[in-house]
Write a structure and sequence with these properties.
The complex is a heterodimer of chains A (369) and B (254). The longest helix of chain A is centred in the last third of the chain and has 31 residues. Chain A has two domains: 61 residues, no CATH class; 224 residues, MetI-like fold (Orthogonal Bundle), CATH 1.10.3720. By secondary structure, chain A is mainly alpha-helical. Chain A has 15 helices and no strands. Chain B is of the alpha/beta class. Chain B has ten helices and ten strands. In chain B, the strands form two sheets. Chain B has a six-stranded mixed beta sheet, sandwiched between helices. A four-stranded antiparallel beta sheet of chain B has the order 2-1-4-5, covered by helices on one side. Chain B is globular. The chains are: A mainly alpha (369), B alpha/beta (254). Chains A and B meet through helix 12 and helix 13 of A and helix 3, strand 6, helix 4 and helix 6 of B.
């Protein structure tokens, strides 16, 4: 093939040599590129086979999905005893929310996706109308979950628990901390000394103390700082603390994004006669937020998982429910199953957030389209 | 009304008297005096670090001068200026590194300021932008993002973006210095066409061919001072100052 000669300027684009691209090329280059590499590949494949075989056996094939106690489980089969979950799934999901009222949680949860859709996906049809629903959703969900209006029975916060509590804390914290974080990031960059100092103090204080101390403050002390007569429920106080804590982190992430914007962007905006707020809205924030997406999502995921810390102030998040289940003599000793189940729930939520942020990043990437 | 109009024809649109500027302790601009008339095209050249970019950046107050006066469109640039934005919207600027907004399409780059700063309705702003993109010969790129265009195309978009504000004065800060050689011409051609429309232009550039062709007057700066100002013919054929001669011999004979 190389013996062929071409006139200068007429050399054609040839296909790559066989075996360097495609599935065959990939396998050859990545798995069997040398003798030692081939050996490693074969050994890993054998190990993987036994590992996966064991995992599938324990998780599914030899597992027991319904039984009355751990002892009964062990009599039936040798794998996981998922009965501890299936028998208490209601508690894991709803905590101690009254069974007849659980539809209210279901409705709020499903409509939450409708409320988030226009915010998360800008190209969605009828977005303007959906945004109205997003705007009223917090009130809607509060009335539905909390009750006390329109003939809905009032449900005490102490009955909240399980995944529902995680979602309430996590989503409220995330939704409130992003705007607060943006304000703090802008405040920290402000030319006004008072605004800048206040922002810096807030951020440094919130980042400088462990979240768990903030939660203790929320559970015991926050009412002292409030005007007399106000009495926030413990749930609201905890959400405030989560919001403050992650807003401080988000502010720093966004500040990094703001500082990554080339100076020329501001000069161009200045030269066009734009005011501070126009620059902030159209030039600074869109670019800074885009740069900060991985960091912001990191903070969100951290916040979401940190909601499990509320167990120390007596709220029954999934871990609390799990511990209660394990304390039952019938299920004593099934901590592997219980914690794996809780872990799976968190993994699914956090993985979804992570995939969304990757999707958003690639959507906002305007370099090569 | 008639009075002010006749006045503005005879009076320069940019007047600079005894202007000084420091960066910290470094004296970048020394006793600059300059008058630019309506429709005049001035090319500023000089070695790097001579203060030529700083000078034109003072005219739309991207840089703040510490001493002397700068008067643009009859308004003096001072510290307690309330409507700096209004003055800036009358003075367009094109940068060496284009500085297009990468997250907006070419069309949005052009319409953002007209809509929000000047309050133009969106439809009119779009029409104006398309007209000017046609003038810089890239209307077909309107819906692309800046990152998808070549350097020369980006710089032409930047020119169109400035023109969308319908400025009275255009400042060019080394508009072709960041471009590959084969793209310089398309940008210079755009600037020559703009000059033919009678736009007041201040251009910092090393493109002496452009200066010869378009400029009414060429300024040579060195170490923060205006060393020599003359019409292009005299400037290139018979430079008066030794430093000008040295500079011209360096950039023309390679």
């Amino acid at each position: 093939m190389s013996s062929q000669t071409y006139k200068p300027g007429s050399y054609p684009n040839l296909p790559p040599p066989p075996g360097t691209v495609g599935v065959y090329g990939w396998i050859k280059n990545n798995l069997f590129s040398s003798i030692s590499n081939s050996l490693l590949t074969i050994i890993s494949a054998i190990l993987l086979y036994y590992l996966i075989d064991g995992i599938i056996g324990w998780f599914f094939l030899d597992a027991v999905f319904d039984a009355d106690s751990k002892i009964e489980c062990r009599k039936i089969d040798s794998g996981a005893c998922w009965a501890v979950i299936t028998r208490r799934v209601g508690q894991f999901v709803y905590g101690f929310y009254p069974e007849v009222e659980r539809w209210r949680i279901d409705v709020s949860f499903l409509t939450m996706f409708v409320a988030f859709a226009p915010l998360l996906y800008p190209d969605i049809p009828k977005r303007k109308w959906l945004l109205w629903f997003s705007a009223i959703y917090p009130v809607f969900a509060f009335i539905l979950i909390n009750g006390g209006f329109f003939g809905l029975a009032k449900i005490e916060y102490s009955l909240f628990g399980g995944f529902m509590l995680t979602v309430i804390l996590g989503v409220s914290g995330i939704v409130c901390s992003l705007p607060l974080g943006i304000v703090l990031a802008l405040g920290r960059q402000s030319k006004l000394t008072v605004v800048r100092t206040l922002s810096v103090c807030f951020i440094e204080f919130m980042r400088g103390v462990p979240l768990i101390t903030l939660l203790f403050v929320a559970s015991s002390m926050l009412n002292y700082f409030m005007p007399p007569g106000t009495n926030f429920s413990i749930l609201v106080r905890v959400i405030i603390m989560f919001t403050f804590f992650s807003a401080a982190y988000i502010a720093e992430v966004i500040r990094g994004g703001i500082q990554a914007i080339p100076k020329g962007q501001y000069e161009a905006a200045d030269a066009l006669g734009m005011t501070y707020w126009q620059k902030t809205r159209f030039i600074t924030l869109p670019q800074a937020l885009k740069i900060s997406i991985p960091g912001i999502m990191n903070t969100f995921i951290g916040l979401y998982k940190d909601t499990t810390l509320v167990v120390v102030i007596g709220l029954l998040d999934p871990l609390g429910i799990g511990r209660a289940a394990l304390a039952d003599t019938k299920w004593n000793g099934l901590s592997t199953e219980t914690y794996l189940f809780v872990a799976l729930f968190f993994f699914v939520s956090c993985f979804a957030m992570s995939r969304y942020s990757l999707w958003l990043e690639s959507k906002l990437n305007t370099d090569h389209k | 009304m008639v009075n002010t109009k006749t006045k503005s024809i005879t009076k320069p649109v940019i007047e600079i008297h005894g202007m000084h500027k420091w960066f910290g302790n470094f004296h970048v601009l020394k006793n600059i005096s300059l008058a630019v008339n309506q429709g005049e095209r001035i090319v500023i050249c000089g070695p790097s670090g001579s203060g030529k970019s700083t000078l034109i950046r003072c005219i739309n107050r991207l840089e703040v001068h510490q001493q002397g006066d700068i008067i643009v469109n009859d308004i003096e640039l001072t510290g307690d200026l309330k409507n700096l934005e209004a003055i800036r919207s009358d003075v367009g600027m094109v940068f060496q590194s284009f500085n297009l907004f990468p997250h907006l399409t070419v069309l949005e780059n052009c319409t953002l300021a007209p809509i929000w700063v000047k309050g133009l309705p969106k439809k009119e702003a779009n029409e104006l932008a398309m007209e000017l993109l046609t003038r810089v010969k890239i209307p077909e790129q309107a819906l692309k993002f800046p990152g998808q265009l070549s350097g020369g195309q980006q710089q032409r978009v930047a020119i169109a973006r400035s023109l969308c504000m319908q400025p009275k004065i255009m400042l060019f800060d080394e508009p072709t210095s960041a471009l590959d050689p084969e793209m310089i011409k398309e940008v210079l051609d755009t600037m020559i066409e703009l000059a033919e429309t009678g736009m007041t232009m201040l251009v910092v550039t090393h493109e002496m061919g452009f200066a010869k062709k378009v400029a009414d007057s060429v300024i040579f700066m060195d170490e923060g001072e205006i060393i020599e100002q003359n019409d292009p013919k005299k400037f290139f054929n018979n430079p008066q100052n030794e430093r000008t001669k040295l500079f011209l011999s360096q950039i023309l004979n390679h």
